[in-house]
Amino acid sequence: MKVDIWSDIRCPFCYIGKRRFEEALSRFKHKDEVEVTWHSFELDPSMKTQPDKNPLEYLAEIKGQTLQWSEQMHDQLTGTAAAAGLTFNFDKCVVANSFDAHRLIQFAKTKNKGDQAKERLLKAYFTDGANIADHAVLAQAGSDIGLDSAEVTKMLQTDAFTENVRSDEATAQRLGIRGVPFFVLDQQYGVSGAQMPDTFLEALEQAWKEKEKIDAISNVTPTDTGDACGIDGNC
């Protein structure tokens, strides 16, 4: 069964949702038969990288809110993340465009390391305070998961995997995805947001049941040659 997930590296609920989904998947009895694929989604494609910008002030500004509001919201998110076993250091986050990081994930997918790249970059952004738009940072992240850092650097110096990112985003638009994380189970069920593990598990089990029904129908073998009408209209 396939699970397709659209998310952005800069999205805190995407990291929380990843961890909650992983917990649900660990409890799913068919987990070894589930293929997870990460898809690109940029919350703000036009965002400018500003390493010297205070991330809490930045959010307050773009939302038209006070710094106190931003601090309170981030404190709440830090607590939510901690409950999922994650450490968020929002005061260290770097205001950075995520496009090249998405290209790195697309490249990693060709090496069967898409999930590792996603995890490493989420940690880099939310925990380590790394600049995910910096090519040296991305090359090191690639090296950390077993990719050739020189190969990553060379890839980033070109427009490689741009079309992969854009294709994912175009698909998200066609599907009507307006927020992330967004999970599509077996091309049938959509689950929006960082749901709790039990909700994800219920969705996985329901999608599996439907898959079994479809598989049963497709595996039916005719046992007789009784009267019937063909698809050409002949009876």
Main features:
single chain, 235 residues, alpha+beta, Glutaredoxin, four-stranded mixed β-sheet, 9 helices, 51% helix, globular
Explain what this protein looks like in three dimensions.
The structure is a single chain. A 4-stranded mixed beta sheet has the order 2-1-3-4, with helices on both faces. Helix 2 packs across helix 3 and helix 6 packs antiparallel against helix 7. The chain has a single domain (2-213), classed as Glutaredoxin, CATH 3.40.30. The protein has 9 helices and 4 strands, in the order E-H-E-H-H-H-H-H-H-H-E-E-H. Strand 3 and strand 4 form a beta hairpin. With 235 residues, the chain is of the alpha+beta class. Residues 223-231 have low confidence and may be disordered.
Q: Specify the helix fraction band.
A: 40-55%
- What is the class in the CATH system? Alpha Beta
**How would you sum up the major sheet?**
4 strands, mixed
| Mean pLDDT over the residues | 93
Q: Note the overall shape.
A: globular
Listing every helix as H and every strand as E from the N terminus to the C terminus, the arrangement reads: EHEHHHHHHHEEH
- The CATH superfamily is Glutaredoxin
| Strand tally | 4
- How many helices? The count is 9
Rg value: 21 Å
Structure class: alpha+beta
Termini Cα gap = 38 Å
How many domain regions? 1
Strand order of the largest sheet: 2-1-3-4
Give the percentage of residues in beta strands.
5-15%
CATH architecture: 3-Layer(aba) Sandwich
Low-confidence residue ranges? 223-231
CATH fold topology? Glutaredoxin
